[in-house]
Amino acid sequence: MPEPIPPDKTRAALRMAFFYAAVFAMIGIHMPFWPVWLTAKGMSPTEIGTIFAASLGTKVIINPLVAHMADRRGQRRPIMVTLSALALMVFTLFAWTDGFWQILSVSVLFFAVWSPLMPLGESLAMLGGGEASGEDHTSRGGELDYGRVRLWGSLAFIATVVGTGYLLVGGDNVDIIYRFLLCSLAIVVVVTLFLPSTRAPVTTSTRFAAMAVLRDRRFVLFIIATALIQASHSVYYGFGTLNWKAQGLSETVIGWLWAEGVVAEIVLFVFGARMVAWMGPSKMIALGGLAGVVRWTVTGMADGLPTLVIIQALHAFTFAATHLAAIYFISRRIPPSLSASAQSLYSAVVMGLVFGLAMFASGKLYGLLGAGAYYAMAVLAAAGAIMAIFLATSRR
After folding, report:
1. Which CATH class is domain 7-199+208-393?
2. Residue ranges per domain, the chain?
3. Nearest residue to 149 (alpha-carbon basis) of 131, 124, 130, 132
4. pTM attached to this predicted model
Protein backbone atom coordinates (compact mmCIF):
# COMPACT_ATOMS: atom_id res chain seq x y z
CA MET A 1 0.00 0.00 0.00
CA PRO A 2 1.53 3.37 -1.07
CA GLU A 3 2.42 5.85 1.63
CA PRO A 4 0.12 8.88 1.94
CA ILE A 5 1.40 12.07 0.33
CA PRO A 6 2.41 14.63 2.98
CA PRO A 7 0.14 17.72 3.00
CA ASP A 8 3.07 20.10 2.51
CA LYS A 9 4.15 18.18 -0.58
CA THR A 10 0.60 18.34 -1.97
CA ARG A 11 0.46 22.10 -1.40
CA ALA A 12 3.84 22.58 -3.05
CA ALA A 13 2.78 20.52 -6.06
CA LEU A 14 -0.46 22.49 -6.39
CA ARG A 15 1.33 25.83 -6.25
CA MET A 16 3.88 24.75 -8.83
CA ALA A 17 1.06 23.46 -11.06
CA PHE A 18 -0.53 26.92 -10.97
CA PHE A 19 2.85 28.43 -11.85
CA TYR A 20 3.33 26.22 -14.90
CA ALA A 21 -0.26 26.81 -16.01
CA ALA A 22 0.14 30.59 -15.75
CA VAL A 23 3.49 30.69 -17.56
CA PHE A 24 2.43 28.40 -20.39
CA ALA A 25 -0.88 30.21 -20.77
CA MET A 26 1.19 33.29 -21.57
CA ILE A 27 3.46 31.30 -23.92
CA GLY A 28 0.39 29.82 -25.64
CA ILE A 29 -0.64 33.34 -26.62
CA HIS A 30 2.80 34.81 -27.26
CA MET A 31 4.45 32.08 -29.34
CA PRO A 32 1.85 31.71 -32.12
CA PHE A 33 0.19 35.15 -32.06
CA TRP A 34 2.81 37.76 -31.14
CA PRO A 35 4.15 37.74 -34.74
CA VAL A 36 0.63 38.72 -35.82
CA TRP A 37 0.76 41.77 -33.54
CA LEU A 38 4.25 42.65 -34.76
CA THR A 39 3.10 42.40 -38.38
CA ALA A 40 0.21 44.75 -37.62
CA LYS A 41 2.78 47.19 -36.19
CA GLY A 42 4.51 47.21 -39.58
CA MET A 43 7.31 44.73 -38.91
CA SER A 44 8.61 42.74 -41.88
CA PRO A 45 9.39 39.00 -41.62
CA THR A 46 13.11 39.82 -41.49
CA GLU A 47 12.56 42.34 -38.69
CA ILE A 48 10.40 39.88 -36.75
CA GLY A 49 13.13 37.25 -37.09
CA THR A 50 15.70 39.72 -35.82
CA ILE A 51 13.52 40.63 -32.83
CA PHE A 52 13.11 36.99 -31.83
CA ALA A 53 16.78 36.19 -32.41
CA ALA A 54 17.89 39.10 -30.22
CA SER A 55 15.41 38.08 -27.54
CA LEU A 56 16.73 34.51 -27.64
CA GLY A 57 20.29 35.76 -27.34
CA THR A 58 19.35 37.64 -24.19
CA LYS A 59 18.56 34.33 -22.50
CA VAL A 60 22.08 33.06 -23.07
CA ILE A 61 23.61 36.01 -21.21
CA ILE A 62 21.05 36.89 -18.53
CA ASN A 63 19.88 33.48 -17.30
CA PRO A 64 23.23 32.31 -15.85
CA LEU A 65 23.74 35.71 -14.17
CA VAL A 66 20.35 35.63 -12.44
CA ALA A 67 20.84 31.98 -11.51
CA HIS A 68 24.22 32.78 -9.96
CA MET A 69 22.52 35.33 -7.73
CA ALA A 70 19.82 32.79 -6.79
CA ASP A 71 22.40 30.14 -5.86
CA ARG A 72 24.40 32.64 -3.83
CA ARG A 73 21.28 33.54 -1.84
CA GLY A 74 19.65 30.12 -1.73
CA GLN A 75 16.31 31.71 -2.59
CA ARG A 76 13.98 31.36 -5.55
CA ARG A 77 10.55 32.88 -4.77
CA PRO A 78 11.60 36.51 -3.99
CA ILE A 79 13.64 36.69 -7.19
CA MET A 80 10.81 35.16 -9.23
CA VAL A 81 8.28 37.62 -7.82
CA THR A 82 10.56 40.51 -8.73
CA LEU A 83 11.21 39.18 -12.25
CA SER A 84 7.52 38.59 -12.99
CA ALA A 85 6.57 42.07 -11.76
CA LEU A 86 9.30 43.64 -13.89
CA ALA A 87 8.17 41.60 -16.89
CA LEU A 88 4.64 42.95 -16.52
CA MET A 89 5.87 46.54 -16.20
CA VAL A 90 8.21 46.27 -19.19
CA PHE A 91 5.54 44.67 -21.36
CA THR A 92 3.25 47.67 -20.81
CA LEU A 93 5.83 49.74 -22.75
CA PHE A 94 4.80 48.01 -25.99
CA ALA A 95 1.68 50.18 -25.96
CA TRP A 96 3.89 53.20 -26.73
CA THR A 97 6.38 51.62 -29.11
CA ASP A 98 6.55 52.71 -32.73
CA GLY A 99 9.04 51.39 -35.23
CA PHE A 100 11.58 48.58 -35.34
CA TRP A 101 14.21 49.93 -32.95
CA GLN A 102 11.74 50.77 -30.18
CA ILE A 103 10.08 47.36 -30.42
CA LEU A 104 13.45 45.61 -30.52
CA SER A 105 14.67 47.50 -27.43
CA VAL A 106 11.57 46.71 -25.39
CA SER A 107 11.62 43.07 -26.55
CA VAL A 108 15.20 42.58 -25.39
CA LEU A 109 14.44 44.27 -22.07
CA PHE A 110 11.32 42.13 -21.60
CA PHE A 111 13.09 38.84 -22.25
CA ALA A 112 15.93 39.87 -19.95
CA VAL A 113 13.49 39.72 -17.01
CA TRP A 114 11.11 37.07 -18.36
CA SER A 115 13.44 34.31 -19.57
CA PRO A 116 15.13 33.56 -16.19
CA LEU A 117 11.73 32.86 -14.64
CA MET A 118 11.27 29.35 -16.04
CA PRO A 119 14.66 27.84 -15.08
CA LEU A 120 14.26 29.25 -11.57
CA GLY A 121 10.82 27.64 -11.45
CA GLU A 122 12.24 24.31 -12.61
CA SER A 123 14.86 24.53 -9.88
CA LEU A 124 12.22 25.32 -7.27
CA ALA A 125 10.04 22.43 -8.41
CA MET A 126 12.89 19.96 -7.96
CA LEU A 127 14.38 21.33 -4.74
CA GLY A 128 12.56 18.64 -2.82
CA GLY A 129 14.73 16.08 -4.65
CA GLY A 130 17.69 14.18 -3.34
CA GLU A 131 21.11 15.66 -2.80
CA ALA A 132 22.90 12.67 -4.23
CA SER A 133 25.96 13.17 -6.37
CA GLY A 134 24.89 10.70 -9.04
CA GLU A 135 21.70 9.85 -10.83
CA ASP A 136 21.66 6.22 -9.74
CA HIS A 137 20.72 7.27 -6.22
CA THR A 138 17.05 7.38 -5.47
CA SER A 139 15.59 10.73 -4.61
CA ARG A 140 14.13 11.55 -1.27
CA GLY A 141 10.45 11.24 -0.59
CA GLY A 142 10.07 15.01 -0.80
CA GLU A 143 10.70 15.07 -4.56
CA LEU A 144 7.68 16.23 -6.54
CA ASP A 145 6.31 14.17 -9.39
CA TYR A 146 7.57 16.71 -11.93
CA GLY A 147 5.71 15.27 -14.90
CA ARG A 148 2.28 15.46 -13.26
CA VAL A 149 2.96 19.02 -12.13
CA ARG A 150 4.38 20.16 -15.47
CA LEU A 151 1.51 18.72 -17.53
CA TRP A 152 -0.73 21.57 -16.34
CA GLY A 153 1.48 23.87 -18.36
CA SER A 154 0.80 21.83 -21.48
CA LEU A 155 -2.94 21.86 -20.82
CA ALA A 156 -2.89 25.63 -20.33
CA PHE A 157 -0.92 26.01 -23.56
CA ILE A 158 -3.57 24.10 -25.51
CA ALA A 159 -6.38 26.11 -23.92
CA THR A 160 -4.89 29.51 -24.70
CA VAL A 161 -3.79 28.58 -28.23
CA VAL A 162 -7.25 27.33 -29.11
CA GLY A 163 -9.10 30.07 -27.22
CA THR A 164 -7.10 32.96 -28.61
CA GLY A 165 -7.25 31.57 -32.13
CA TYR A 166 -11.01 31.22 -31.86
CA LEU A 167 -11.42 34.82 -30.67
CA LEU A 168 -9.21 36.12 -33.48
CA VAL A 169 -11.08 34.37 -36.29
CA GLY A 170 -12.56 37.00 -38.57
CA GLY A 171 -11.44 39.83 -36.31
CA ASP A 172 -9.36 42.83 -37.29
CA ASN A 173 -8.50 44.06 -33.79
CA VAL A 174 -5.14 42.42 -33.14
CA ASP A 175 -4.65 44.57 -30.05
CA ILE A 176 -6.62 41.88 -28.25
CA ILE A 177 -3.39 39.85 -28.38
CA TYR A 178 -1.55 42.55 -26.44
CA ARG A 179 -4.34 42.83 -23.86
CA PHE A 180 -4.49 39.05 -23.36
CA LEU A 181 -0.74 38.95 -22.82
CA LEU A 182 -0.92 41.74 -20.24
CA CYS A 183 -3.62 39.85 -18.35
CA SER A 184 -1.65 36.59 -18.49
CA LEU A 185 1.47 38.33 -17.15
CA ALA A 186 -0.54 39.81 -14.30
CA ILE A 187 -1.70 36.29 -13.41
CA VAL A 188 1.92 35.10 -13.42
CA VAL A 189 2.78 37.84 -10.90
CA VAL A 190 -0.02 36.73 -8.57
CA VAL A 191 0.92 33.06 -8.87
CA THR A 192 4.58 33.68 -8.01
CA LEU A 193 3.51 35.35 -4.76
CA PHE A 194 2.19 31.97 -3.56
CA LEU A 195 5.05 29.75 -4.70
CA PRO A 196 6.70 27.49 -2.10
CA SER A 197 9.25 29.36 0.00
CA THR A 198 11.71 26.46 -0.20
CA ARG A 199 15.32 27.50 0.37
CA ALA A 200 18.31 25.75 -1.14
CA PRO A 201 21.70 25.45 0.58
CA VAL A 202 23.77 28.52 -0.27
CA THR A 203 26.71 27.79 -2.57
CA THR A 204 30.04 28.33 -0.84
CA SER A 205 32.09 28.44 -4.05
CA THR A 206 33.78 31.74 -4.80
CA ARG A 207 33.76 31.10 -8.56
CA PHE A 208 30.93 31.93 -10.94
CA ALA A 209 28.30 29.26 -10.23
CA ALA A 210 27.85 28.28 -13.88
CA MET A 211 31.57 27.55 -14.18
CA ALA A 212 31.39 25.32 -11.11
CA VAL A 213 28.62 23.30 -12.79
CA LEU A 214 30.58 23.00 -16.04
CA ARG A 215 33.46 21.36 -14.20
CA ASP A 216 31.27 18.24 -14.08
CA ARG A 217 32.18 16.30 -17.25
CA ARG A 218 29.01 14.22 -17.17
CA PHE A 219 26.95 17.41 -17.02
CA VAL A 220 28.73 18.70 -20.13
CA LEU A 221 28.03 15.41 -21.89
CA PHE A 222 24.40 15.69 -20.80
CA ILE A 223 24.15 19.23 -22.22
CA ILE A 224 25.54 18.11 -25.58
CA ALA A 225 23.14 15.15 -25.82
CA THR A 226 20.00 17.10 -24.91
CA ALA A 227 21.02 20.07 -27.08
CA LEU A 228 21.34 17.86 -30.16
CA ILE A 229 18.01 16.12 -29.56
CA GLN A 230 16.04 19.28 -28.80
CA ALA A 231 17.68 21.11 -31.72
CA SER A 232 16.39 18.36 -34.00
CA HIS A 233 12.91 19.86 -33.50
CA SER A 234 13.88 23.11 -35.25
CA VAL A 235 12.50 22.24 -38.71
CA TYR A 236 9.28 21.00 -37.12
CA TYR A 237 8.79 24.13 -35.01
CA GLY A 238 9.81 26.57 -37.70
CA PHE A 239 8.47 25.00 -40.88
CA GLY A 240 6.21 22.08 -39.93
CA THR A 241 3.06 24.03 -40.74
CA LEU A 242 4.43 25.27 -44.09
CA ASN A 243 5.49 21.74 -45.03
CA TRP A 244 2.08 20.29 -44.24
CA LYS A 245 0.31 23.05 -46.14
CA ALA A 246 2.53 22.27 -49.13
CA GLN A 247 1.29 18.67 -48.88
CA GLY A 248 -2.29 19.92 -49.18
CA LEU A 249 -3.40 19.65 -45.55
CA SER A 250 -5.90 22.20 -44.31
CA GLU A 251 -5.28 24.59 -41.41
CA THR A 252 -7.79 22.65 -39.33
CA VAL A 253 -6.01 19.34 -39.85
CA ILE A 254 -2.64 20.98 -39.20
CA GLY A 255 -3.99 22.42 -35.95
CA TRP A 256 -5.07 18.98 -34.82
CA LEU A 257 -1.66 17.53 -35.66
CA TRP A 258 0.00 20.17 -33.48
CA ALA A 259 -2.51 19.48 -30.71
CA GLU A 260 -1.79 15.76 -30.95
CA GLY A 261 1.86 16.42 -30.21
CA VAL A 262 1.01 18.36 -27.05
CA VAL A 263 -1.48 15.71 -25.93
CA ALA A 264 1.22 13.06 -26.43
CA GLU A 265 3.61 14.97 -24.18
CA ILE A 266 0.88 15.28 -21.52
CA VAL A 267 0.42 11.49 -21.51
CA LEU A 268 4.17 11.05 -21.11
CA PHE A 269 4.26 13.52 -18.23
CA VAL A 270 1.55 11.53 -16.42
CA PHE A 271 3.65 8.37 -16.41
CA GLY A 272 7.05 10.05 -16.55
CA ALA A 273 8.11 9.46 -12.94
CA ARG A 274 7.64 5.71 -13.39
CA MET A 275 9.73 5.78 -16.56
CA VAL A 276 12.51 7.66 -14.80
CA ALA A 277 12.47 5.15 -11.95
CA TRP A 278 12.58 2.28 -14.44
CA MET A 279 15.08 3.55 -17.01
CA GLY A 280 17.01 6.36 -15.35
CA PRO A 281 17.40 9.84 -16.90
CA SER A 282 20.31 9.03 -19.23
CA LYS A 283 18.59 6.11 -20.91
CA MET A 284 15.42 8.17 -21.30
CA ILE A 285 17.41 10.83 -23.11
CA ALA A 286 18.84 8.16 -25.40
CA LEU A 287 15.30 6.93 -26.04
CA GLY A 288 14.30 10.45 -27.03
CA GLY A 289 17.14 10.60 -29.54
CA LEU A 290 16.32 7.22 -31.06
CA ALA A 291 12.66 8.21 -31.33
CA GLY A 292 13.82 11.38 -33.10
CA VAL A 293 15.66 9.34 -35.73
CA VAL A 294 12.44 7.47 -36.53
CA ARG A 295 10.17 10.51 -36.29
CA TRP A 296 12.14 12.87 -38.52
CA THR A 297 13.03 10.22 -41.09
CA VAL A 298 9.39 9.20 -41.52
CA THR A 299 8.16 12.82 -41.43
CA GLY A 300 10.61 13.70 -44.21
CA MET A 301 9.17 11.06 -46.52
CA ALA A 302 5.53 10.99 -45.31
CA ASP A 303 2.90 12.33 -47.69
CA GLY A 304 -0.21 10.81 -46.16
CA LEU A 305 -2.25 11.89 -43.18
CA PRO A 306 -2.51 8.44 -41.49
CA THR A 307 1.28 8.16 -41.32
CA LEU A 308 1.60 11.68 -39.92
CA VAL A 309 -0.99 10.98 -37.24
CA ILE A 310 0.94 7.92 -36.09
CA ILE A 311 4.36 9.56 -36.17
CA GLN A 312 3.20 12.72 -34.35
CA ALA A 313 2.66 10.61 -31.24
CA LEU A 314 6.45 10.29 -30.98
CA HIS A 315 6.53 13.89 -29.70
CA ALA A 316 5.96 12.22 -26.34
CA PHE A 317 9.49 10.82 -26.56
CA THR A 318 11.44 13.24 -28.74
CA PHE A 319 10.52 16.28 -26.64
CA ALA A 320 8.72 15.27 -23.44
CA ALA A 321 10.84 12.28 -22.42
CA THR A 322 14.05 14.17 -23.21
CA HIS A 323 12.97 17.25 -21.25
CA LEU A 324 11.59 15.28 -18.32
CA ALA A 325 14.76 13.19 -18.09
CA ALA A 326 16.84 16.38 -18.24
CA ILE A 327 15.04 17.89 -15.25
CA TYR A 328 15.54 14.71 -13.21
CA PHE A 329 19.17 14.38 -14.29
CA ILE A 330 19.93 17.90 -13.03
CA SER A 331 18.05 17.28 -9.79
CA ARG A 332 19.96 14.07 -9.06
CA ARG A 333 23.38 15.00 -10.41
CA ILE A 334 23.81 18.63 -9.31
CA PRO A 335 23.85 19.74 -5.64
CA PRO A 336 20.84 21.91 -4.64
CA SER A 337 23.24 24.80 -3.97
CA LEU A 338 23.95 24.94 -7.72
CA SER A 339 20.55 23.86 -9.02
CA ALA A 340 19.48 27.27 -10.33
CA SER A 341 22.70 27.64 -12.32
CA ALA A 342 22.37 24.12 -13.73
CA GLN A 343 18.78 24.71 -14.82
CA SER A 344 19.71 28.07 -16.32
CA LEU A 345 22.60 26.57 -18.27
CA TYR A 346 20.25 23.91 -19.61
CA SER A 347 17.79 26.61 -20.64
CA ALA A 348 20.39 29.00 -22.06
CA VAL A 349 22.51 26.50 -23.98
CA VAL A 350 20.00 23.82 -25.01
CA MET A 351 16.86 25.90 -25.59
CA GLY A 352 18.67 29.16 -26.31
CA LEU A 353 22.05 29.11 -28.05
CA VAL A 354 22.01 25.71 -29.78
CA PHE A 355 18.33 25.79 -30.63
CA GLY A 356 18.68 29.31 -32.02
CA LEU A 357 21.56 28.23 -34.27
CA ALA A 358 19.57 25.20 -35.39
CA MET A 359 16.58 27.40 -36.24
CA PHE A 360 18.80 29.63 -38.38
CA ALA A 361 20.27 26.61 -40.19
CA SER A 362 16.83 25.05 -40.60
CA GLY A 363 15.62 28.05 -42.58
CA LYS A 364 18.44 27.54 -45.06
CA LEU A 365 17.89 23.77 -45.17
CA TYR A 366 14.13 24.02 -45.69
CA GLY A 367 14.62 26.57 -48.44
CA LEU A 368 16.96 24.18 -50.25
CA LEU A 369 15.47 20.78 -49.47
CA GLY A 370 11.85 21.29 -48.40
CA ALA A 371 10.69 18.25 -46.43
CA GLY A 372 14.14 16.74 -46.99
CA ALA A 373 15.41 19.05 -44.23
CA TYR A 374 13.91 16.57 -41.77
CA TYR A 375 16.63 14.08 -42.69
CA ALA A 376 19.24 16.46 -41.29
CA MET A 377 17.18 16.58 -38.09
CA ALA A 378 17.29 12.77 -37.94
CA VAL A 379 21.09 12.99 -38.04
CA LEU A 380 21.07 15.47 -35.13
CA ALA A 381 18.80 13.17 -33.12
CA ALA A 382 21.07 10.20 -33.85
CA ALA A 383 24.11 12.16 -32.66
CA GLY A 384 22.23 13.09 -29.49
CA ALA A 385 21.27 9.47 -28.88
CA ILE A 386 24.91 8.38 -29.23
CA MET A 387 26.04 11.03 -26.75
CA ALA A 388 23.29 9.93 -24.34
CA ILE A 389 24.46 6.32 -24.59
CA PHE A 390 27.96 7.46 -23.67
CA LEU A 391 26.39 9.38 -20.78
CA ALA A 392 24.53 6.29 -19.59
CA THR A 393 27.66 4.14 -19.65
CA SER A 394 30.00 6.76 -18.16
CA ARG A 395 30.32 6.87 -14.39
CA ARG A 396 32.78 9.73 -14.03
Report:
1. mainly alpha
2. 7-199+208-393
3. 124
4. 0.78
